# Entry
Amino acid sequence: MRLLAVLLLLAAPAWAQDQRTGEGTGALLRWLDKMSGETADVELQRGQSAVSGHLTIELDECRFPAGDPASDAYAHLTIRDSRAAEPVFDGWMIASSPALSALDHPRYDVWLLRCTTEAGSAQ
# Structure
């Protein structure tokens, strides 16, 4: 019985990695300027960038569980501050857990809302 429990625990990560995903054509993001309280939604297509305040946000790709584009999306973003040499964020953001992999910036917050599957249609 104990051996079975150990085998199940060891196999669980493999099952999680095998989840099929769909590719979004873009993503819907929200940004917040913490000083002014201003917020805006930004829709980006893959490879496109947008400027919000001092930030340039570039979407590399957006994925979601296959067959459920409104579900748990995750996107690879590169975010640059015009006043810094290196990107302030370069990694994956997860829509359902924005604090898990968040932009750490004193003035701005950016988070993923969902992937888009067609130009102009947020899913």
Notes: Residues 21-122 form one domain. The chain has one domain: 21-122.
